[in-house]
Amino acid sequence: MTFKTLFPRAMEVAYLDSAAEGLPAPGCAEAFLRYCRDKEQGTPGRRFFHQAEAEALEMAAQLLKTKKDNVAFVSSASDAINILASSLEWNPDDEVIISDIEFPSNIIPWLSLKTRGVRVIVVPAENGAITWDTVAGYISSRTRLVSLSLVSYKTGAYLTGVPALSSELKRVGAYLCIDATQALGRCPVSLEGVDYLMASSFKWLMGPHGLGLVYLSSELREQLRPTSLGWYSVENPFAPDPSQGYSLKAGAACLSAGMPNFPSLYALRESLSFLLGLSVEAIYEKSRPLVERLRFGFQQLGCDMLTPSDPGKASGIVAFRHAQSEAIGLALKEKGIVVWGGDGRVRTSVHLYNDLEDIERCLSAMASILNMPEITGIRVGPGRGSG
Predict the structure, then answer these.
(1) What gap in Å lies between CA 347 and CA 371, rounded to an integer?
(2) How does pLDDT run across 259-270, given as a tens digit for each residue?
(3) Residue 363: is its pLDDT beyond 90?
(4) For 28-276, which CATH class?
(5) Could you tell me the strand order of the sheet in which 340-342 lies?
(6) pLDDT per position as a tens digit, 39-93
(7) Residue 3 half-sphere exposure, CB side, CA atoms within 13 Å?
(8) Is domain 4-19+279-376 in CATH 3.90.1150.10, yes or no?
(9) pTM to 2 decimals?
(10) Where in the chain is the domain with CATH 3.40.640.10?
(11) Where exactly does CATH 3.90.1150.10 map onto the chain?
(12) In angstroms, rounded to a whole number, what is the distance separating the alpha carbons of residues 167 and 183?
């Protein structure tokens, strides 16, 4: 069973690009209108703003199976990573470990620490995946943090062995940061062994832009010294004499400097409610045959696969390399099939609104597109083909 009929766009096209832009959950459009009506009340409407914030926070905590005190909202997942990078006290020769299949937002903030003497170690993927024991081989007494994606945006590989990796890090007093952007709302996410986790709101969570969901463990909270602060970060911003100092809010609440994105929180509240009414584990299991069919179909077509064949590393993403990835994406779009085509790869992604018809439609179209002269580069006659 899929939920395709609840998503108008999924009825119009074979939408296989949730890894880039998830379709909004039912009720999101109405949520924005509800915000506007509350906003029209002026300051009396603020009680509804904060109610939406509190309810969205509670539901986010439920999704992550943690206490709401451990969860906060910031402006984006990129913002969440930058907050972490700037809130730890770094020493020269500290080491941060990442991988070569990370999204740029999980690379650039760490590279910026090089000016402070921090060394960034990049672990190479093997067959499109990162394994916890390979990463563990890079851990040393200088390791301060490991930051990895639970699911790679590039290959779709699912990171396993997180608790074991965390145990190795605890041995040297280091922390584990997980980017769950390509997992949360679609794949099982466990916080066991995780010190810091972030996710975007607009992909698999089927929410709006403008929010990043953050989990902060109580252990790491004790070590953080946030530098981006505001009235929303502290316990009593309107003390009689604020110049006497301040006390940060407990838990993850100290990460939010100012008023949150209330319109987006209204919509995210709807998408979180929708997901909690289902089961992410059920979504994952029901989608597994579709993901496997897609991966096997591409392999049969001779595609240079980026996605690992190991079913234990499967997520919602199936991708392959191709020099004409943009042209393939455009050709599929003309046939009513939406995928990601660019960066030298074609990436498809399967969510709860997809069904076997979408998969077979994509594979059938791909079979013909991959043989087009402008894709293969083979000349078929004078003045034809791409050469």
Answers:
(1) 18
(2) 999 999 999 999
(3) yes
(4) alpha beta
(5) 304-305, 317-321, 345-349, 340-342
(6) 999 999 999 999 999 999 999 999 999 999 999 999 999 999 999 999 999 999 9
(7) 20
(8) yes
(9) 0.94
(10) 28-276
(11) 4-19+279-376
(12) 22
